[in-house]
Amino acid sequence: MSTDTLARIAGKQEAVDALPLMTARDVHVYYGQKHALKGVSIDITRENVTAFIGPSGCGKSTFLRCFNRMNDTIDNARVTGRIELEGQDIHAPEMDVVQLRARVGMVFQKPNPFPKSIYENIAYGPRIHGLAATQQEMDEIVTRSLTRAGLWDEVKDRLQDSGTALSGGQQQRLCIARAIAVDPEVILMDEPCSALDPIATGKVEELIDELRGRYAIVIVTHNMQQAARVSQKTAFFHLGDLVEYDDTSVIFTDPKESRTRDYITGRYG
Amino acid sequence: MSTRAEALPAAPASGRPPTDWKSPDMVARVKRRYRSETIFRFIGLAALVFAVGFLALLLATMLRSGLSGFVQTQVKVSVELDPTLLELGSDRSGQALLNADYLSAYARGLRESLGPAGPDIASANGWTALREMVMADPTLLGRTVEIWVPARSAFDQYAKVGIDPDIPPELAPVSSEQIAAFERLSEQGRIRTSLNRTLLFSGDSTTPEAAGIWGAFIGSLLTIAVTLALAFPVGVLSAVYLEEFAPRNRLTDFIEVSINNLAAVPSIIFGLLGLAVFLNTMGLPRSAPLVGGLTLALMTLPVIVIAARAAIKSVPPSIRDAALGIGASRLQTVFEHVVPLALPGILTGTIIGVARALGETAPLLMIGMRAFIVDAPRSITDPATVLPVQIFLWSDNVDRGFVEKTSAAILVLLVLLLLINGVAIYLRNKFEQKW
Fold it and tell me: Does B328 touch chain A (CB under 8 A)?
């Protein structure tokens, strides 16, 4: 990415939102010898759903996992550059990675509820972070989280059933409810619908739209229609570079870069 | 990643004729496939029958020679509990009752109620039953009591299998006069066959009719308890650390290889190690379940580590992601999510390791657990023996009564192992998670 593009993007960004919730500056990620992400800078705002799109292996999931330092769990991964949450460096020694992951929640590609009861799935996060002092407060958190995830009506009579007994779409919304329960500021979603059927996908997309504004949402997706439907900002990645970052409407109708245009029109694999 | 500018190359022109699925070649190929499947199925079945056959043969042999060990021929003896004969005097304290001369009273009872052949027919150890009776109820003193005592092993064998025709009469364990006396007693209703409580609830003895597995059984339980108490926590924690926390480097690779090698080391080597370290260097008591348990723990440890690592590895990474993703620490992730999910596998591996330790003989011989011990151990530092060693000791004995006991003890050990494996299967099914 050329410096003037960066300046243009940054300038535009500052004009729109005075205070981005998360910022990334010149982030590189290496997996052993492989240079997976090559100096990416971006601002994430609370008001918008941000979509990361791009062909497989372009580094979008890798970049997403930088925001809550999930790359720390990969043995040979190395991250450089600066990422800030509300102006605080997330790699600073005083930043506790456990608290960071509570503040920056994550939803994974494959629904991964704990093999425990639905109630326990939601209550686990608040319990380890001490968010509920009494059983009543915990009940409230569970009810509120499931309601926000649009799952309450479907599971209210069987909260003690196993979370793994739900359908795939319900499991994914349970995972979203689980992320919501610890009251995060950002929710990262790594291709949350790729394992779901179209109806379940529709429900998750509706849910993302409802959650917008309350949480900053970053979603990685392979599905360009999905990016167009749910996001207000779209970032296009290619071979570890952030090629273009702009309003979703601009990316899909009038992209500046030819590589973006080729991808949008289906000329990339 | 490339742009799809040019179209895919067109399908090759049909240069070869369409495949004929009905040609003789094809038909023969299908036939061959069916034939090889049939042959494989037959060979597999034959292998299974072979394996099950051997198992059945083993069980049948053990049952044939061992089942009779669970019953015992008993003789009814009338004994007069004369305080004078018991050398009791006027003292009726517990200590006096314990030390009274029951043997004389018993010997007289044998002669008077069974005739001159009595002492040859009834067990010499029968007087201990008198002591128990008097200790429990001192008012019996001065009265005549009737007790059933085990017959001597030779008569027990005579009652069960008759006279062995292969043994010449001059070498026979029982003479014809003794047999006549035994038959007379039988007609008087003084002989019966009953469940052999001695086998199950007595300690070892030099005479087969008084020997039992109780001491060895308790010794086995104590030894296994020590083994489990040491090997389970150490094994599981090592596995958790190696799998979840240890960095991947040459050192951990070396440790991994060493653990796998340890699991393959012959068990007698562990016995030598126990002898050198626990007995000679540390000076722990010889023949004790403590040392046996420590030695077997060393042997079981690698098995548990390997099983636990495999179980932990099989927990899907998505569960770790899920827990880390909502801000669980590594410790919380491991102990609240990964280990509980790995528990069925860990338990199965542990129980298999313990079952192996329970049947282990060689290393225990090295640390002196082959001593002749009559009493059941009361603590892990008392001298003791264990079931497989007891079987080994009895199998050395030529007395026919001990041959029967050996098989009976093997049956008990087999039942015990069966129970343990049953528990393993039950636990695995109960805790197994499906997702």
Answer: yes
Name which of A70, A268, A269 is nearest B324 (Cβ-Cβ).
A70
Among candidates A110, A125, A239 on the partner chain, residue whose Cβ is nearest the Cβ of B327: A125
Digit-by-digit pLDDT tens for chain A (269 residues) are 455 555 555 555 444 445 788 999 999 999 988 999 999 999 998 888 999 998 888 889 999 999 999 988 888 889 999 999 988 899 988 889 999 999 999 999 999 999 999 999 999 999 999 998 999 999 999 999 999 888 999 999 999 999 999 999 999 999 999 999 999 999 999 999 988 888 889 989 999 998 888 899 999 998 888 999 999 999 999 988 999 999 999 999 989 988 888 888 877 65
* CB within 8 Å: B1 and A57: yes
Interface test with A, best of B314, B326, B341 (most A CBs within 10 A): B326
Q: What is the pLDDT of residues B2-37, one digit of tens each?
A: 444 455 555 556 678 888 888 999 999 999 999 999
Interface confidence (ipTM) of the complex: 0.85
Question: Is any Cβ of chain A less than 8 angstroms from the Cβ of B342?
Answer: no
The nearest alpha carbon in chain A to B248 belongs to: A75
Closest CA to B149 of B202, B80, B209: B209
Q: Are A207 and A78 in contact (CB under 8 A)?
A: no
Q: How far apart are CA A105 and CA A121, in angstroms?
A: 14
Tally of residues, chain A: 269
Using the structure block, give the residue that is written with the tokens 């597995």. B213
Put simply, the answer to whether B324 touches A73 (Cβ < 8 Å) is yes
Instruction: State how far the Cα of B161 lies from the Cα of B155, in Å rounded to an integer.
Output: 10
B386-401 pLDDT, tens digit per residue, is 999 999 988 888 888 8
Question: Closest approach of chain A CAs to the CA of B253, in angstroms?
Answer: 15
Q: Which residue has the tokens 């570890």?
A: A240
Write out pLDDT tens, residues B73-124: 888 888 888 777 777 777 777 777 777 788 888 888 888 888 888 888 888 8
CATH label, A3-264, candidates 3.30.40.10, 3.90.226.10, 3.40.50.300, 3.30.360.10: 3.40.50.300
| Residues from chain A contacting residue B319 (CB–CB below 8 Å) | 112, 114-115
Angle, nearest 10°, between helix axes B102-114 and B127-136? 120
Residue A255 main-chain phi, psi, to 5 deg: -65, 150
Crossing angle of helices B289-313 and B267-274, rounded to 10°: 130
Size of interface A-B (CB pairs under 8 A): 80
Chain B residues with CB under 8 Å of A179 CB are: 325-326
Hey, which residues does A25 pair with through a beta bridge?
Answer: A82
**Strands, E, within chain A: which ranges?**
22-31, 34-44, 49-53, 77-85, 88-89, 104-107, 186-190, 216-220, 233-238, 241-247
Residue B122's nearest CA partner among B131, B110, B109 is B110
Distance CA B174, CA B120 (A): 9
Locate the domains of chain A by residue range. 3-264
Sorted by where each starts, the structural domains of chain B and their CATH numbers stand as 71-195 (no CATH), 214-431 (1.10.3720.10)
Pick from B247, B318, B433: which is nearest to A108 by CB? B318
Nearest CA in chain B to A262: B3
CB contact under 8 A, B327 and A106: no
Contact A108 B434 (CB under 8 A): no
